[in-house]
Predict the structure.
Amino acid sequence: MLVLALPTLSLHLGTSDQGNNPASTTTRAAYDLLAEGFGPGSNGPLTLVTEVDGAADRAAMDALEGTVRATEGVASVSPVTYNGSGDTAALTVVPQSSPQSQDTSELVDRLRDSVLPQAQQGTSLDVYVGGVTASYDDFAEVIVGKLPLFVGVVIALGCVLLLLAFRSIGIPLKAALMNVLAVASSFGVVVAVFQWGWGSELLGLGSAGPIEPFLPVIMVSVLFGLSMDYQVFLVSRMYEEWLETGDNRRAVRVGLAETSRVINSAAVIMISVFLAFVLSGDRVIAMFGIALAAAVALDAFVLRTLLVPALMHMLGGANWWLPRRLDRWLPRISIEPPERGAAHEKIDAQRTGESEDSQQLVP
């Protein structure tokens, strides 16, 4: 799981374009012809726009054209153009690299952080950088900035739910750790296939490129929902056995034996559905399919039916430890109603009586 998670460290969020389409498509052919004839950056030029007030600003804009042309990573710069009233100026910058390249993102940062602030000194200019790469970089920056808070809130709420349901400190902590591990490992698979291009061409998904910025949010949401479902289903059966016998080894063994087939069967159904997304031929949809299929497979087959039971077996009775003071403060909720045991005993007794009556009627 840790090895699969390593590619996540090189995750690059951005937008795919026609350059990631399969080589047999006309959109890819047109993209390649443009890149070959006019340079890779011609498929996604940057636009610098600002308001102009007076002759000093006009002179600064004329000087900015030469400054940007000499900037590292710039292939060409168009002349400054003004609108009819002369109060807005724009120029087009063609990067040396393609729109989805990390070099183009670095060029956007270089323009915003160093080149443009120096050119604006002593003037009223406030130059903005637009274009496909700049817009998606801004979107990715917002997503990355909010993702830790989003994941933290989801994990915290899940831990609170498990804490109330199973009256244990260890169960929620293990669930949080396993969920993070599943997310990181599945992201590693996505990076290897789509960003590094390991097998993407063989699957008919086009060439390597960045990962869509909205994938982490949707993927984390779906995966945490499924993994919590599996976790509650598995551990609730163990918890029932623990309450009845007080034997952790038996609780883990019985809980795994009675729920693993259902968990694995449900996982196979979900994996089949998600892998069907790959047949669409669309890179973004296939990215969702492979990401969620890998996440469900790792979560169900490795985490919930292997690592979680093994760790609970090793920890023994510590799985169910909860400070007494905290136990008194927490409200009591239950996966099953408290009278479950008595009701089951009554049903068993009725079945036993019916069986004895039927045996007496047999001649």
Remarks:
- The beta strands are 46-51, 74-77, 81-82, 88-95, 128-131.
